């Protein structure tokens, strides 16, 4: 069964690994549109969910599960060219996810020995593809922290410090879901209704009350966990009857998330340009200027304090 699941994992992930393009788009009030879910994201999220270990429904047989998995594998890989490096890329993604969960260091030597093996000449290409997958699907960057020793670290995208592991949660990185929600809010004018948020999440096969392999139950994550972590504010829309709710950035999101980097992240994925969205781009420029001023003020305050301490010593 383990071998069978491993095969299905490779087949399904490979199907979506290199596909690009738009899945669905979110309309803006200005008539513009920006995609929040690429075909790669959409496929990979669904593919990982399809092979995730789960309890079988009552009355289901192992043969039915195998037939279902075989059907998924066939539909996901049909008419796609076979790349001999795909298996290594998928194995490296699995390896990196394990390292993320265990917080163990990553070295080139270990990757070559455990994952790449006979494809050592293609190490950089395998690492590039796996890193892109980690970035787009899981919201995690693979950073080389020591060029001499060739050691790598897994860092949350956009500098976000959220880490579900600190609260004892298990599972895959959830940063990409946080990025998606923050992005929708920003592109919708800094507030998005609950309906607008779920419209986007449903495109990624994320539904309220339904457990997801990567993100768990998404409603709890976005309405409670991220609110408690102060990344989101979740409130009733003023004067709404019947009551409806909306999401806004929380204080921690304002402190950590650069609107320019967020806009660049989405437009880079789709080979677009931040200036294609002038109102968001102008707001992002103002945000960058305010952040720069805040850094200068903090630095000046620190220098002033250091000077005062030096003067007291004399």
Automatic annotation (TrEMBL):
| GO CC terms | nucleus
Ranges for the region named Disordered are 50-83, 292-314
Locate the MAGE domain: which residues? 85-284
* Xref: PROSITE patterns: MAGE (PS50838)
- List where Basic and acidic residues composition bias occurs: 55-68
Q: Note one Pfam family from the annotation.
A: MAGE
Q: Composition bias, kind Polar residues: at what positions?
A: 301-314
Q: Name one GO biological process term.
A: negative regulation of transcription by RNA polymerase II
InterPro entries linked? MAGE, MAGE_WH1, MAGE_WH2, MHD_dom
Q: What name does this protein carry?
A: MAGE domain-containing protein
Species assigned in the record: Canis lupus dingo
């Amino acid at each position: 069964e383990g071998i069978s699941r491993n095969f299905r994992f490779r087949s399904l992930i490979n199907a979506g690994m290199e596909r690009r393009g738009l899945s669905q788009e979110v309309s803006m009030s200005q008539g513009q549109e920006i995609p929040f879910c690429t075909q790669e994201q959409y496929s990979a999220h669904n593919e990982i969910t399809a092979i995730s270990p789960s309890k079988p429904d009552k009355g289901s047989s192992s043969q039915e599960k195998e037939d279902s998995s075989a059907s998924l594998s066939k539909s996901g890989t049909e008419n796609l060219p076979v790349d001999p490096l795909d298996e290594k890329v998928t194995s490296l993604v699995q390896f990196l996810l394990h390292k993320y969960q265990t917080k163990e260091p990553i070295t080139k030597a270990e990757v070559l020995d455990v994952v790449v093996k006979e494809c050592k000449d293609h190490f950089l290409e395998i690492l590039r593809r796996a890193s892109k997958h980690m970035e787009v699907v899981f919201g995690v960057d693979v950073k080389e922290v020591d060029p001499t020793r060739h050691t790598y670290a897994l860092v949350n995208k956009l500098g976000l410090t959220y880490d579900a592991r600190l609260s004892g949660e298990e599972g895959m990185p959830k940063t990409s879901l946080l990025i998606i929600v923050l992005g929708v809010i920003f592109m919708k004018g800094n507030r998005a209704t609950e309906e607008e948020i779920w419209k986007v999440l449903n495109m990624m096969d994320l539904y309220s009350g339904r457990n997801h392999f990567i993100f768990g139950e998404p409603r709890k994550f976005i309405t409670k966990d991220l609110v408690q972590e102060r990344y989101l504010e979740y409130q009733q829309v003023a004067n709404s009857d019947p009551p409806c709710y909306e999401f806004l950035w929380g204080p921690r999101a304002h402190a950590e998330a650069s609107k320019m980097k967020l806009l660049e992240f989405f437009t880079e994925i789709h080979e677009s340009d931040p200036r294609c969205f002038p109102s968001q781009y102008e707001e992002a420029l103002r945000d960058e200027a305010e952040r720069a001023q805040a850094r200068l003020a903090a630095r000046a305050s620190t220098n002033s304090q250091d000077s005062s301490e030096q003067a007291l010593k004399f």
